[in-house]
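[job 0412] stage=fold_complex status=start
inputs:
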Amino acid sequence: MFDFIPGRKYIDIMAMVAEVMVFDVKSTDLVYYCDWCSFGAYNSQQVEMIELKEVSKIFYKKGGAVAALSDLSLTVARGEIFGVIGASGAGKSTLIRCVNLLERPTAGRVIVDGQDLMALPSRLLTQERRHIGMIFQHFNLLSSRTVFGNVAFPLELSGISAHEIAKRVSELLALVGLQDRQHDYPVNLSGGQKQRVAIARTLASNPKVLLCDEATSALDPETTRSILALLKDINLRFQITILLITHEMNVVKAICDKVAVISEGRLVEQGTVGEIFSHPRTELTKRFISPWE
Amino acid sequence: MSESMISLLVHGLLETIVMTFVSGAFGFLIGLPAGVLLFVTREGQVLESRVFNRIVSVIVNIFRSIPFIILIVWMIPFTRMLVGTSIGVLAALVPLSIGAAPFIARMVENSLLEVPHGLIEAARAMGATPTQIILKVLLPEALPSIVNGASITLIALVGYSAMGGAVGAGGLGQIGYQYGYVGYDTVVMNTVLVLLVALVFVIQLTGQYISRKTDHRK
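[job 0412] stage=fold_complex status=done
writing structure:
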C-alpha cells in the first residue's frame, strides 16, 4: 500500500504513513505533513551517507582476472571526513570510483544516502550523480572553457537559467577566492588554483558527498595545506560528507575523522585517526605513519 | 594571356573553390557524426557497442580504400541518378563528398581520442548524459584538432577536385588537363599550378589561425 524508501529510518509509524505526502524525495531534511491526521514529523536523518557492502571488482585482462577489490565493506557517516590510505595499486582509486559507479562493482552493493546506486537505471543514476561531487588528482578542468565556464558546467547540465548560473558561479568563486580570475583559462592557473576551481565546480550542484581522488597528490605541501583547509571548511559549513583517498598520511592527519588502510583490495585496518595513530596494528599502517624510519 | 583566357582561369578557380568547400561541408555533415559514433562506441567509452563500432568501422575503411579517381568513375550511375549528369561541378560534388566523409570520420575520431580521458570521467561523475558529454565536452575540447583536420581535408579535396578535372568535373583541374596536358600550353599550365598552390596556402594559413584562436591550452 505504501512505497517504502529502502534504507531510510523513520522515527515512528506516522512518519512512515506520511511518506505518501513527501515533498521532495531527494532532500534528507524532510518534514512530513500528513493531511488526514494533521501530523508532522521529521525524517530521522540517514546516518550512513556512504555504504559499501561486500564490494568486489574484478578486471579482466589478457592473461587473467585481477581482483582490484575483494569483499570490501565500508561505512561513512554523514558529515564525516573519511580517509582511505594505501600504496599505488592497492585498489583505492577503484574503491572511490565505485562510490559513484564510474566503475561498476562486480559484486556487492553501493548505497549513497539511502539510495542503492546499482539498482538505478542509467537515467536516474545520472540524476543521482549530480548530488555526488568528485575532485581529481589532475583536476580535469575543461581547457576550452574559462574558470567561469568550468564552474557553470554542472549547472548547465541541469538546465538552470543563465541568470541563476551567473549568480551562483560568483558565489562559488568568492568561496574559493578566485572571483578575479573568472575570465582566465585553466592553462593560466597554478595547480592549487585549478583545484580550487574544481572544488567550486563540485559545490555548484550542492552535493551531499564529496569524493576526493588523490586531490592533493599533484600539489606542493603548502598548497596541499590550503586545499585541505578549504575542504575542512566546506565540510563544516555545508555539512558535506567527504571520502578521500591518498597515499600520504599527512593528509589523513590533517583533516580526517576516520581512516581505513587498504592493501591488495582489502581493508586491513580501520578506526578513528586518534586510534590508528596511537595504536597502529598492522605493519603496513606503521609504515605509512613513519615512512622514513 | 588573352582576356578570355583570364576569365576562363578565374571561372575555373571559382569552380575549384566551390567544389572544395561545398564537398567539404557535405563531407563534414556525414563524417562528423560518423567520427563521433566511432569514438563513443569504442570499448570503455560512454556508448560502448562493439557491434556498432565494427559495422561503421568496416564501411568507413572500405570507402577510404577506394582510390578517388576510381570512386568518381564507379559512382557515375549514382551521380547521374542524383543530379542528372556526370559532368560538371554539381556532378563532381557527389563523389567528392562521399570520398571526403570517411576521411573526415577518421580525423574526427582521432581528434576525439586526444581529449584527456579524465575530462570524460569528470563529466560522467557530474551526471552528464552521453549527448551532453559529446556536445559540451568532447567536441569543444577537440575543436582545435578538428579544425586542423578540416584544413587537411580541404587541401586533399583541392587535389581530388583537380583529379576530377580529368573526367569533366570542371575547375582548374580541367583547365590544366585540357590546355596543359592535351594542349601543351605551358603558360596556362603554370598559371593553374600557381593558383592551386596559392589556394592551398590560403586554406592552410586560415586553418592554422582558427585552430590557434580556439586553442586555450597554450
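[job 0412] summary: The two ends of chain A are 63 Å apart (CA to CA).
[job 0412] exit 0
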